[in-house]
Amino acid sequence: MVRGFAGMTTATSIWPEEKAGRFRAAVLRLRGSARALRAARGMRLAKAFDAARARIKARVLDDFKQHEWPKFQKLDEIFRKGLGLPVPALSVCGQGTAEIRFTKLLAYFFDSRNPHGLGGLLTRAVFADRIENGKRLPFEHCEARAEVSLGDTKLTRGQIVRNSLDIEISVGEHRILVEQKINSAEGEEQLARYTEGMCKTYGGGDKLHCFFLTPEGKVGKEAAWQCLSHRELLSDMAGVLERHALSATARHNLRALLWDLLLGPLAQDDRWMDELEQMTGLVAKDPRKYIEMKRWLGRCGMGREELRIIALITGD
């Protein structure tokens, strides 16, 4: 307030400034309250999330302890006492990622006539659901050949190349064609050449089924070829071990094949079995190390399904 005429007091602009100051202070208090509210809400959400995650981890761990931990304890005993596992012959010989040798191994097991004891179960497990009306096909009578000639092709730059398909499986009037890649890439115009070659050889039609097999299910450059991964192959074949009553010989042969799939196309690491032995020892002593084992498998390009299969093929 200031003195005006005749000693009167009059208001000046200080009042609007005081009001503005009070308004700013109120806004700051509201903002502080809002931040505190958001922080409290965030803490509650974080606690709820942590609690939910802990419950999920506990359920997963309980499931592991109930179904798979006993088998990993047994696997640890096998390692410690030298009781032995089915021999993955290709991997032991350093050929686990050799495409030609692995192709011949798969062709052997895809042929129901061979004395592996599995008949056409593996062929059915892998292909029946991937072929339209495939469950009706007579997989109990299937024949497989490796390294099948599809004739020669002249490339766009004039070079003549020989087309050699990895696996041909005959099931009744149907033909299943498999081209496998483990470390190598698809060759120049390869699937296009094979598509042309198979049409000349087999005539095409709806009884011809083509699969491009790679460790991670890479999509080929030709639409006619369905992608198929070695991980899917492993899982489908392990299902035969899980769901079918097999002879002792058949079970042993299938376990050896599954070990070869794990060590060869999937792990692709000579140290993998040694690391598995170390991780198994940790998990056998403390099931909580299961999480650490999962992380290790993840670094190897594997996951929960492969962990389950390792427990499964340890056997009785």
Determine the mean pLDDT.
Answer: 85
| Count of beta strands | 7
- Apparent shape: extended
Radius of gyration, Cα only, in angstroms?
33 Å
Largest sheet: 5 strands, mixed
Main-sheet strand order equals 3-4-5-6-7
Q: Could you estimate the helical fraction of the residues in percent?
A: 40-55%
Q: How much of the sequence is in beta strands?
A: 15-25%
Assign the structural class, choosing from mainly alpha, mainly beta, alpha/beta, alpha+beta, or little secondary structure.
alpha/beta
Question: Secondary-structure element sequence?
Answer: EEHHHHHEEEHEEHHHHH
Continuous helix count: 11
Provide the low-confidence segments as ranges.
Answer: 1-13
Distance between termini?
98 Å
What does this structure look like?
The protein is of the alpha/beta class and 316 residues long. The protein has a domain of 176 residues. The strands form two sheets. Strands 3-4-5-6-7 form a five-stranded mixed β-sheet. A two-stranded antiparallel sheet has the order 1-2. Helix 6 links the parallel strand 5 and strand 6. Helix 7 packs across helix 11 and helix 8 runs antiparallel to helix 11. The N terminus is likely disordered.
Question: What's the structural blueprint in terms of helices and strands?
Answer:
Blueprint: E1 2-3, E2 9-10, H1 14-67, H2 69-81, H3 89-92, H4 99-109, H5 121-127, E3 142-154, E4 160-171, E5 174-180, H6 190-202, E6 208-214, E7 225-229, H7 230-243, H8 248-267, H9 272-285, H10 290-299, H11 304-314
Parallel strand pairs: 5-6, 6-7
Antiparallel strand pairs: 1-2, 3-4, 4-5
Helix pairs in contact: 2-9, 5-7, 7-8, 7-11, 8-11, 9-10
